[in-house]
Amino acid sequence: MAETLEVTTLRPAPGRTAKDFVEANADVNAYLQRQPGFLWRRIVETDDGRIIDIVAYDSLPHARAGAAGITGEMAGSPVHATIDHNSVDWQLTTTLQYLA
After folding, report:
1. What distance in Å separates the CA atoms of residue 91 and residue 83, rounded to the nearest whole number?
2. Residue 12 and residue 53: Cα distance in Å, rounded?
């Protein structure tokens, strides 16, 4: 199966920073590591202050299930308070090429 990426771009909530976002993800990280098909996660900050959060799964069905839990099982996570929810762009995409 093709590697599937969950790619989320967002801005921190007013008064919050990328560091706040990363620190508030402790419970989400633990959740992700329990998910079937989870491969890896990267969080980066762009020069203009946007955060890009990329989560890799081994398949689209696993990615959909894992992502659903972020707004379901993990709805009470402190990470949600660190996000400007009007800025969120979220998508699932299949990897076309992987070069290590």
Report:
1. 16
2. 12
Residue found under tokens 């989560």:
55
Q: 0.90 exceeded by the pTM? A: yes
Residue 28 CB neighbour total at 10 angstroms: 19
Helix (H, G, I), strand (E, B) or coil at 37: coil
Q: How far is CA 5 from CA 33, 52, 73, in A?
A: 15, 12, 20
Q: For the chain, give the mean pLDDT.
A: 94
Distance CA 36, CA 62 (A): 6
Asked if pLDDT for residue 7 goes beyond 90, the answer is: yes
Residues 5/75, Cβ–Cβ less than 8 Å: no
